[in-house]
Structures are given as C-alpha cells and as structure tokens.
Specification:
The protein is of the alpha+beta class and 292 residues long. Helix content is 12%, strand content 26%.
Length: 292
C-alpha cells in the first residue's frame, strides 16, 4: 500500500511491514502477561498517518492484521477469526460487535477485514477480544472523500495497453513482465455491454505483504471468467525505474492516495464492488460476483 504526497513511498506508508500505528493505543503495557499479547495493526489509511478512507452512512471495510509483541505482523499461527467491536468515541455507541474471519493467500500475512457501518463522521475505537489496547480511526463526511464509491459511475479514461503505453513505462511492473490485463484500455472496456473490473496496483512494490497477491489473483480470475467481464490492470507510477514517481492519470481519476484498489462496475458502468488495500481470492471472487 502506498500513501503520501505523491503517494508516499511504500516504506513510509507501511512503516517497514509493521503497518499503520497512528491510531493504535496500547494499554497495560507494564503488565508482563499483556506484553506478550497481540494487538491490532491497521492495513489502511486511518486518518492519522494518512487521510482517512472511511465515510459515514454506508458499509466500510477496514483490513487489520495482528501485531506480535515485537511489533511485527503475525504471519504464522493466526486464529481463524477474531472478535472485534467498534464504538463511536463521542457517543460511546457500539456500532459493530462480532466475529471477523481470517483472510489471505498462502505465504503472505493473514488479515481480518472488518466491515462496519459508521452512522456519523468522527472518531471511532476498535477493540479486539483478548487483544491489548485499541485502534482509533477517523470517519469523514461522504462529500469530504474523493474516492469513488459504490453506486457511482466508473470514470472512463484511457489506460496503457500493449499497443499504446501512454508514456507510462513500464505499463506493468510484474517481475515476470507485463501481465495479460493490458489488452484493452479502460475506456474501451466501458464502451462494451459487459462488466468491467479495474485493478490499480504497483506489484513491483508489494510482493510479500497482504497486498502482494492482488495482481496474480486478478490474472487467474481473468483466465477463469474469460469474456464474461473485462479485467484491466493499471499501474500507479509513470516511470518508477527512472525514479519518476509521478502518479498515473488513473490514480487521480479514482481519487486514490494508496494502492492496491479493485473497482468493479456492471454493464451500465455503475460501481458495484470495491476492495482497497488487502484482498484475497475469496474477497475478489465475491466482488466480481456482484456483476456476474
């Protein structure tokens, strides 16, 4: 995940691979037993170290990882689920309480995608049963967030293809070379009477973290689904190999200050599914199924 000025560097955004800690509050740190416990690590922009991605009045998705006593994400031995509850700090109203299942591809850090529906903008607190401390996040008014939302139209613009790189080089930073998701431009896909899925990601900069498998997952889905929908990949930076980290037009068009992001639209180009930051095959399949 990248966030920034120009989308900060991934190293600043992830603080190595320990994740966002801007809203993390640890309690009972002096207790010997608690010091060996796990805490929540945010794999999203929570409003403290980067502008929040959450808006009030609709379901929001917050992927968490578990952080061990040394401050690193738990990569092995993660539970099948964790029990979380979310409380609005000003009113002390509990808006979510329940089990959140583990997700993630084999070989990468497991994550827990919390889905909650904040009724108002403001500050919220997330706590986990058996976890030390809590995590704070900020929720904004919908009008204050530039991110494309479910129910809105997918922006139509050109994206780089094998035939036309639009001065973006390389058009795909996948280590094995450009992936197959650059056969057609986004605007071409949206002009067809079929659904479209767009993945905006920089695979060169995320290979082992929770965001790492995103492109490979979409490539496999494209092979499985064939012509049922068009799946397109677009890069984040214009010329990263030449140290040109200016963002590509698609990043600005979708209001992104991070990556990766998957946006799914139906045949009428209305957005029906969105996944930000972390995703696995199960969640990607569910997002794509909203148009199939």
């Amino acid at each position: 995940m990248i966030t920034n000025k120009f989308l900060l560097s991934r190293r600043h955004a992830l603080v190595g691979i320990a994740g966002f800690t801007g809203g993390l509050i640890l309690t009972s740190c002096g207790n010997k037993e608690d010091s060996k416990s796990l805490s929540l690590g945010a794999r999203f922009a929570d409003g403290f170290q980067a502008p929040t991605v959450f808006t009030s009045g609709s379901p929001q998705r917050a992927p968490y990882v578990l952080i061990n006593e040394e401050g690193w994400p738990l990569s092995e031995g993660a539970p099948d689920s964790i029990n979380l509850h979310v409380k609005e700090i000003s009113s002390e109203e509990t808006i979510f309480e329940g089990k959140v299942s583990r997700h993630g591809e084999r070989g990468v850090i497991p994550y827990f995608p919390l889905i909650f529906n904040p009724p108002r903008s403001g500050e919220y607190k997330v706590e986990g049963e058996g976890l030390i401390g809590h995590h704070r996040l900020l929720v904004a008014q919908p009008s204050d967030i530039k991110l494309i939302q479910i129910g809105q139209k997918m922006p139509s613009l050109q994206t780089p293809t094998m035939q036309n790189n639009l001065q973006i080089n390389p058009i795909c930073t996948k280590s094995s070379g450009p992936c197959i998701l650059h056969k057609e431009s986004l605007d071409e896909s949206l002009s067809k009477p079929t659904p479209t899925a767009l993945l905006i990601s920089a695979p060169q900069f995320c290979q082992t973290d929770v965001c790492g498998p995103a492109l490979d997952i979409l490539v496999k889905q494209s092979e499985l689904l064939g012509e049922k929908l068009s799946i397109i990949h677009a890069e984040v930076f214009k010329e990263p190999e030449n140290q040109n980290f200016s963002v590509t037009p698609v990043v600005e068009a979708f209001g992104l200050t991070f990556e990766p992001s998957l946006i799914v639209a139906n045949s009428e180009n209305v957005v029906t599914g969105i996944l930000h930051f972390a995703m696995d095959t199960e969640e990607v399949s569910a997002a794509l199924s909203t148009v199939l």
